[in-house]
Automatic annotation (TrEMBL):
Its main location: cytoplasm. This is tRNA dimethylallyltransferase. It comes from the Eukaryota. Its EC number is 2.5.1.75. Catalyzes the transfer of a dimethylallyl group onto the adenine at position 37 of both cytosolic and mitochondrial tRNAs, leading to the formation of N6-(dimethylallyl)adenosine (i6A37). Mediates modification of a limited subset of tRNAs: tRNA(Ser)(AGA), tRNA(Ser)(CGA), tRNA(Ser)(UGA), as well as partial modification of the selenocysteine tRNA(Ser)(UCA). TRIT1 is therefore required for selenoprotein expression. GO terms for molecular function: ATP binding; tRNA dimethylallyltransferase activity; zinc ion binding. Belongs to the IPP transferase family. Residues 350-386 are annotated as: Disordered. SUPFAM superfamilies: beta-beta-alpha zinc fingers, P-loop containing nucleoside triphosphate hydrolases. The gene is Trit1. GO terms for biological process: tRNA modification. InterPro entries: Dimethylallyltransferase, P-loop_NTPase, Znf_C2H2_jaz, Znf_C2H2_sf. The lineage of its organism: Eukaryota, Metazoa, Chordata, Craniata, Vertebrata.
Length: 386
């Protein structure tokens, strides 16, 4: 996930050069648009650090796109077939993964087929290693300094919309056209484009698919409409991705940190006019505290959570014909508009059936003889007996 940048802090002060303690690995977490790269550059320049990008889409390895590895082959199969296969070899992991989450299911199958060890067993071994925790295996770097940049969601949404507009003004469309001509035009003509793997799955390309494949082949009005559609889609998916990144940070580091999880220091970045005072200077103080080997004055971020909550619990909603993984997700589902809509439909259908039955019963009770008279007057057997 493109939610982090890292810099190994290298002190330049003469008083610190002789220190033998382990220098910290500074990890900067945050959603897209929060200023991770800016802060990494500032800290790197001030401290003489080396900056490493942790963006999963940093390098477009398009030359390997034609190589079909095992995971890609697995993902071509039906999701329910894949999940059934996983249940046979790794029932523990299958119970944690949604059948429709084909990529994770395929990944777990790939681990088993390539190593002979189930994915769940592989993770158990990592957790049980010295320094391991519920988050995963031992930390690769022993002295991490983790900073989390976060902003008010409304402010961040507006910033991301403007960021898309700025990218367009800086020549994004020409870059997209060039990339399409060089790497995707032939695939599109053969209807074999793949937006699920490699660089093609990154945000900012597939949203303009219709515009790119029809440019010059339709009316200017249609092309303009498709361009507007692509721009709006890019803005929407970017904002959704930012929310997903923040959920990942909270779930991975803050809600269930585990006994050995490193502290995370939050920095508010909503007001960029106060960047120096509210972001850079506090970040510098925290990093320098790590370098000098003492606790920062800042308090780490902690988010209260329910210890009894099960993030991997398995729920089936027969009403919506859906499988839900996790207690929190289940609680959200039963309150969702889609579930409440289905519940309302069922109640209306049930009320309609009840009304029909009531009307039928009432009709049966209201039937009366066509001829009226004294009891037995119209009974032929009684007439004969008299």
């Amino acid at each position: 996930m493109a939610a982090a940048a890292a810099a190994r802090a290298v002190p330049v002060s003469p008083t610190l050069r002789g220190l033998k303690r382990t220098l910290p690995l500074v990890v900067i977490l945050g959603a897209t648009g929060t200023g991770k790269s800016t802060l990494a550059l500032q800290l790197g320049q001030r401290l003489g650090g080396e900056i490493v990008s942790a963006d999963s889409m940093q390098s477009p390895k398009v030359d390997t796109e034609q190589v079909v590895d095992q995971k890609v082959e697995l993902e071509k199969e039906d999701s329910h077939v894949l999940h059934s296969r996983l249940r046979q070899v790794d029932p523990e992991m299958a119970a944690k993964l949604h059948p429709h989450d084909k990529r994770k299911v395929a990944r777990s199958l790939q681990v088993f087929e390539e190593t002979g060890v189930s994915h769940s067993e592989f993770l158990h071994r990592q957790h049980s290693e010295e320094g391991g925790s519920p988050l995963g295996g031992p930390l690769k770097f022993p002295n991490p300094c983790i900073l989390w940049l976060h902003a008010d969601q409304t402010v961040l949404d507006e910033r991301l919309d403007k960021r898309v507009d700025d990218m367009l003004a800086a020549g994004l469309l020409e870059e997209l056209r060039d990339f399409h001509r060089r790497y995707n035009q032939r695939n599109s003509s053969e209807n074999s484009q793949d937006y699920q793997h490699g660089i093609f799955q990154s945000i900012g390309f597939k949203e303009f698919h219709e515009y790119l494949i029809t440019e010059g082949k339709c009316t200017p009005e249609t092309s303009t409409q498709l361009l507007k559609k692509g721009i709006e889609a890019l803005k929407q998916v970017t904002k959704r991705y930012a929310r997903k990144q923040n959920r990942w940070v909270k779930n991975r580091f803050l809600s269930r940190p585990g006994p050995r999880a490193p502290p995370v220091y939050g920095l508010e970045v909503s007001d960029i006019s106060k960047w120096e005072d509210s972001v850079f200077e506090p970040a510098l103080d925290i990093v320098q505290s790590f370098i000098e080997g003492h606790e920062p004055a800042a308090t780490p971020v902690r988010i209260p959570y329910n210890e009894t909550e099960n993030k991997r619990s398995y729920h089936v909603c027969d009403l919506c014909d859906r499988i839900i993984i996790g207690d929190r997700e289940w609680a959200a589902h039963v309150k969702s508009k889609s579930h409440l809509h289905q519940l309302k439909k069922r109640r209306l259908a049930s009320d309609a059936v009840s009304t029909t039955k009531s009307q039928t019963t009432a009709s049966d009770c209201d039937i009366e003889p066509k001829e009226h008279g004294s009891p037995g007057q119209n009974d032929p057997d009684l007439k004969r007996s008299t």
